[in-house]
Amino acid sequence: MFISYPQQPRCSHQAVILIITNPVNSTVPIAAETLKILGVYDPKKVIGVTSLDIVRANTFVAEAKGLDVKDVDVPVIGGHAGATILPLLSQVHSIEG
Fold this sequence. Notes:
Strand order of the largest sheet: 1-2
Radius of gyration: 17 Å
Distance between the termini: 44 Å
Number of strands: 4
Order of helices and strands: EHEHEE
Shape: elongated
Strand content: 5-15%
Number of helices: 2
């Protein structure tokens, strides 16, 4: 992911960068600062990705509702830290009541 100065011209300035490496909370800002130094930073194109938060939310709802976890899909927004994760329970259509 980290682009050294000699490699920078070979990279697309239109690329969207998805960062999956943990800790996402720290890796995304590091990448952003690196891209700023290179003069190619676009905050709309640097995205932290984590599936673990979705897996946790799906498991929590499935256990609470007595459902199979494969039948639950909870959208999650926010940060990767416990205080900033926001499962969108109102958007879960596979559960009733």
